[in-house]
Amino acid sequence: QVEGVAHSSFRRLSGREKKEMQKEILSLLGLPGRPRPHPPLRPPSSAPLFMLDLYHAVSSEDDDGPGLGFSPEVVSHAALPTLSTHTPPLGTVVSEADTVMSFVNLVEQEKDLLQPRPYWKDFRFDLTPLPQGETVTAAEFRIYKTLPVGWRANRTLHISVYEIQREKRYRDPDLALLDMQSVPTGQEGWLAFDVTSASNRWLLNPRSNLGIRLYVETEEDRSLSAGWVGLVGRRGPRSKQPFMVTFFRASQAPCRPPR
Amino acid sequence: AVRHNNPRKKKPKHDLPHPNRPGIFDQNHASSGRQGCKKHELYVSFSDLGWRDWVLAPTGYSAYYCDGECDYPLSSCMNATNHATIQALVHLLKPNEVPKACCAPTKLSPISVLFYDDNNNVILKKHRNMVVKHCGC
Asked: Nearest CA to CA, how far is A85 from chain B (Å)?
């Protein structure tokens, strides 16, 4: 019924018409079709929550009409409050992005705490192949910091993230500093590290993806374990597990057949 | 149609206006004079399509179409969208004689989708200038 009047002109869709309708919507949205996750594991929900915020931020821009850029505050608020002061200009990166991908953390290993310092933690992500005709404009490694127990709140932690460039047997690997931030011990929230340069290399040459290494130090340069200061890993709550997010932009205006 | 009594789960019914009938407001049109050209929304829910476990957002897709009587009497048996296409064409040929069509699209809008891929990664895809949401009606 439409506006209270029964319409005989309506009819049931045939199976073929339903298939055609679904195919049209999939094509219009550029969706490949139902994924076949292998292995079917329950992924952490931290990335989907972040991406859902991004989606709503982007869609509200769609409704406002073209050319309305984003102020970083709008997006950083929408994209979960982060502690970091060094977050790249997320606003323009998001509104100009054609594709945003979040990657589930595959491998996570930590130095044995019985070994001599410095302590470190490695994270490696499975980067899906580069979307056709698109380049990386920004990439972030996001990790959640909770309140550590038994620490004075006003101390400062220096957290640095390195790219593992070459592994060596029985020696420390070659590292390249990507980003570093100083964070009060007593604060909680998401930390966003800029790993754009590394992700560019990984996507162009997947074999060079050896992951990233995270260090934590006090003001007196004393190395600490990530877990001691409240940095959540893969065994933490699903909504707070670490992930990586990469923003892409089409190299040239993507030409799709007019609909 | 003969109802098949197979035990298959009853699928939600998609009711669409019949493409060949003049318009869904036909009864109103006959009784209360001309029904002006109006934009309509046709919403398909992704829950009905069983996609909600891999398409995180949006929850469905809205298609828009125009229906009703255009002011300019090109031909009464055309539906409004076809009428707009023809009238827009004729207007280009004779801009002084034939007015612009009211329900021709005035802007192309982007559309975004958030979904899981095969590796459980979440992807946000934005397509610029992809759908028509705005027309002259």
From this structure: 25
